[in-house]
Amino acid sequence: MAKPGECGGDQVLLKDTKLMDVKLGQLGSWLAMRDFTPGGILGAIRRGHQRYYNKYINVRKGGLGGLSMLLAGYIVLSYMWSYSHIKHDRRRKYH
Prior knowledge:
Elements: H1 27-32, H2 38-57, H3 65-81, H4 83-89
Membrane topology: Single-pass membrane protein
InterPro entries: F1F0-ATPsyn_F_prd
GO molecular function: proton-transporting ATP synthase activity, rotational mechanism
């Protein structure tokens, strides 16, 4: 059995842990270990794009799943961007 602070055979360092595997009590220290420099953020965006592209776009038997998710995301974002304008129009009387 590994001592606290040592990395055992089946233990993973908190820095290498995925977000879904982080416990709620460890979230603050996990976020403190992330790289929030412009280069780190750009690298995270590149990795996310590469993961999305390989999973949904660059497949042998592709369907409409990846492209429809991209379109749905665009629709939701455009609605959020124009919500303040839409909100003022809904109470306006047209007479």
